[in-house]
Write a structure and sequence with these properties.
By secondary structure, the protein is of the alpha/beta class. 53% of the residues lie in helices and 15% in strands. The strands form two sheets. A three-stranded parallel sheet has the order 3-4-5. β3, α4 and β4 form a beta-alpha-beta unit. It starts with a helix and ends with a strand.
């Protein structure tokens, strides 16, 4: 989710601070547009890879390319997500699975790619973009709410495990 919205804003700040950036998302043209902006405005090196963060094979390919191009990853921003609404009584299983798959399982897949590297280095920063719906319930967004509650639970648990290895894990709601 690095090519637009919150993801683009985060990459702008990191690049302004001098960080080289790797962007992932589903749409290659949007990724390239953001990469060109970051390079021209801030002079940083930007790697892009299109993929679906709910698919482990896509995540593995994107992260392998990023590590090959830029070296070890020190900061991970888990921002890919989807937030659609539907009344629970009309929700299909596919809708549920897609929402949980991208918002929660995608966060797991991406974190899994960097966690070992960060543990070995004794340093890392993981920031999971959640939502206030991860803190309480709202009508018509059961799948989104469940996925963001899961992201917060994953964040809290991993924060306790990771701190011993110099890694901080936080969620932004």
């Amino acid at each position: 989710g690095g090519s637009r919205g919150i993801g683009a804003a985060i990459s702008n700040i990191l690049a302004r601070l001098g960080a080289d950036v790797s962007l992932t998302g589903r749409t290659e043209p949007a990724l390239e547009e953001q990469a060109n902006y970051l390079t021209s405005q801030f002079g940083v090196v930007v790697f892009t890879a299109a993929g679906d963060m709910s698919k482990e094979a896509d995540v593995e390919t994107c992260f392998a390319g990023a590590v090959e191009a830029q070296g070890d990853i020190n900061i991970l921003i888990n921002n890919a997500g989807v937030g659609k609404s539907v009344p629970f009584h009309r929700m299909e299983t596919e809708f549920w699975n897609q929402t949980i798959g991208l918002n929660l399982t995608g966060t797991y897949f991406c974190t899994k790619q960097v966690y070992g590297i960060m543990r070995e280095a004794g340093y890392g920063r993981i920031v999971n973009v959640s939502s206030t719906v991860g803190l309480r319930g709202y009508p018509y967004i059961a799948a989104y709410c469940a996925s963001k509650h899961g992201v917060i639970g994953l964040t809290r648990t991993l924060a306790l495990e990771a701190v011993k290895k110099g890694i901080t894990v936080n969620a932004i709601c």
